[in-house]
Automatic annotation (TrEMBL):
It comes from the Eukaryota. Belongs to the SPACA4/bouncer family. GO terms for cellular component: plasma membrane; side of membrane. GO terms for biological process: sperm-egg recognition. Pfam families: UPAR_LY6 (PF00021). It comes from Channa striata (Snakehead murrel). The keyword DNA damage does not apply. Residues 1-20 form the signal peptide. Residues 43-101 form the UPAR/Ly6 domain. This is UPAR/Ly6 domain-containing protein. Gene3D superfamilies: CD59. Coiled coil: none annotated.
Amino acid sequence: MLHFLLVAVLCFNLPPLLLCQNLLCVFSPILLKEQTIPFVSTECTTDEVCFIADGRYGNHSTLSAKGCMAQKDCSQVRQVEFRGTAFSMSYACCDWPYCNACPGITDTSLSTALTLMTAAWTAGSL
């Protein structure tokens, strides 16, 4: 019976995952940094990428958000009002599934890390 259940789950859940061609990202509305919500997945449209937003009030990073946004809007800073206060919201984007799940992982940080690992590996083999 357990085997039948496993086959049924795979037959109904696996094909949509394999056929999905849109980018999947983590979604989180604008929240205070210390607040968390349960994991929510969202599917971007064809012209969107994942983003992580950082909301600042002066020198303090106080807000965060995650989701999908148009590629052309990445790396911008916008003024956002949250609970009656204006914050500067900056956006970092990435374009692989769930790349916005962890804070601080963007195309730039990933390419920097890969470059450093390659350099260390090359130096170690000399």
